[in-house]
Amino acid sequence: MGEATREAAEAAIDVLLQERREFPPSAEFASGAVASDPGVYERADADLDGFWLEQTREFLTWATPPAQGLDWDPPHCTWFADGALNVSANCLDRHVEAGRGDKVAYHFVSEPEDEDDRAITYADLLADVCRFANALRGLGIGKGDVVGLYMGMVPELAVAMLACARIGAPHVVVFGGFSAEALGERLESTGASLLVTQDEAWRKGGRVPLKVTADAAIELAPTVEHMVVLRRTGADVPMQDGRDVDWAAFVDGQADTCPAEPMEAEHMLFALHTSGTTAKPKAVVHTSGGYLTYVAVTHRWIFDIKDDDVYWCAADIGWVTGHSYIVYGPLANCTTGVLYEGDPMYPAPDRHWDIIERYGVTQYYTAPTLIRAFIKAGPEHPAGHDLSSLRLLGSVGEPINPEAWVWYWKYIGGERCPIVDTWWQTETGGIMISSLPGLVTAKPGSATRPFPGIRAAVFDERGNPVAPGSGGYLTITRPWPGMFRTLYQDDERYVSNYFSRYGHSTYFPGDGARQDAEGDFWLLGRVDDVMNVSGHRLSTIELESTLVEHPAVAEAAATAAPDPLTGQTPLCFVLLRAGREPSDELAAELREWIGEKIGKIARPKAVIIVDDLPKTRSGKIMRRLLKDVAEGHELGDTTTLRDPAVVEDLKRQTDAVLRPKDPPAGV
Ligand code: WTA
Fold first, then answer.
1. Residue 529: pLDDT above 70?
2. For residue range 300-355, what is the model confidence (pLDDT) as tens digits?
3. Is there an atom of ligand 1 within 6 Å of 369 CB?
4. Which CATH code for domain 27-512?
5. Which CATH class, in words, describes the domain spanning 530-658?
6. Closest C-alpha to ligand 1, atom 6
7. Which residues contact 440 (CB under 8 A, 6 or more apart)?
């Protein structure tokens, strides 16, 4: 064996050994941890109602404290239904009233360096929220009226969310990377009457034209009567008289106090869309009391939040992670957070490390896809900064590969910080499976244990629990306060999509998992037609129906290919309409088409033009074969195919794109 080969082999063995390493909390961390009583698991399991009632009383301030815990009429539940509270008062007023108005709620870090950085205190935030809430009321918006929010990562997005919560107007936040069509559909289907947006957002040093996109979107959403436009870059954007108003003019002259009306616990706080197994995104509904309880408790215990911490969740508020762990959980806990506007690699790959050093960040929460991008950029970037303020690291969005885990542990956490790998979903509202960092031994690649009060199990097709070590379907067999209550105006789909596989009492999240001999959970990715690209969910069917809207396309099939950075990447196959000639230009055009129609995150790695798609004799596309092709596996059974030769052609073309044998010079 040559020297280099031996070294490579040793390195590989090293990784394998590391994968089995276990990381118990240090004695020092364990003794000071917020959640330090191992009995909490048993207590919560034995008395679910008692446990959550106790937590909600401790963590929240209710106008009418609830006597009721769970009411479970499978698959529907309510929590604390006889209680009333105001979510924004819980996130703001009570902290200010307790004399903590000067505590920083957010350190805002703008993408252009040092430009608009500012510290926003709880008192500032409360005043801004009140002004905006008063202005909303002035527009006639009140309890139950849906407000759309399409913004970048600016503090005003949190202000608008909290102002909506204050007056009981459910918000629908749409991620700023989505297209006009995606935005329009989300506004239209929820009947939003107001859209709050901004002129442009900063991204990677460039400008994202949010207002122009919003203008196109509301053509598709006739319910939208008004737009409030925040000036962020100061660009000259078209404003329509009578319909559009500047944020500054909107709040001008409004009082900085606004009564926070108590809402019933089950009042809808927001809807948030996520991709499912059909072309139409689902609007997941969360309510007030249960959701806020759940995100507050999980946030404080899992991230070990103490009063002087500077906590940073580097997600975008446009996704559920930002809703729960940038806005509602942290503010309910009166936490100081960092809110960073821009791209992690702008202007250089050390931007995050610079922010951690500058603000003395203590907890840092991000996604594996970004950790892999940091690995690629090299350890010299974090090494150039003092990261010694960090106490804990978190991961979310997709399974974290052990190599990324160990790198994160070593180069970011300085081999000192516990890592919490947190499994959850838009539907679950908050974290469901994760270690409590002072109590549970971490294992790279495992999310470890269900949160106290959560019962999870791995089932086979028929609903029998599988043996430790074997893979199966993850299920949650008991409700929790942060559970989504329904899909907006589509309860039927709520039932059929999530509560039909194993009966109405068992929530089926759509993920594969296995439990090891110690009961720890290892997530195995989606088991349905949903892929996970950079921690974001995309539906294969949505991609397919978008492609067939293109005049050149007769039929389309989408699947996911593995990707070293993004986890998965969409790969599409299309059959052209008669008379259309295949060409590289057309394939590129179709790729861009998806980017325009859905958003850049959905742009496939490649669109491959084929002569036929692998179908069964009855005409069904064989998705399993597409997956084998995309993943570069040996092809499974092709005997049921109408024409087995088709799949060979697919495989040849796919390999040429994804796994070129002779990469072109210079690559
Ligand atoms: C995946 C994001 C493994 C999973 C909060 C889930 C994970 C989907 C993890 C939800 C994790 C999220 N380990 N897989 N720690 N966290 N996932 O709704 O497939 O955008 O079903 O919520 O992401 O994505 P969503």
1. yes
2. 999 999 999 999 999 999 999 999 999 999 999 999 999 999 999 999 999 999 99
3. no
4. 3.40.50.12780
5. alpha beta
6. 425
7. 25, 448, 449
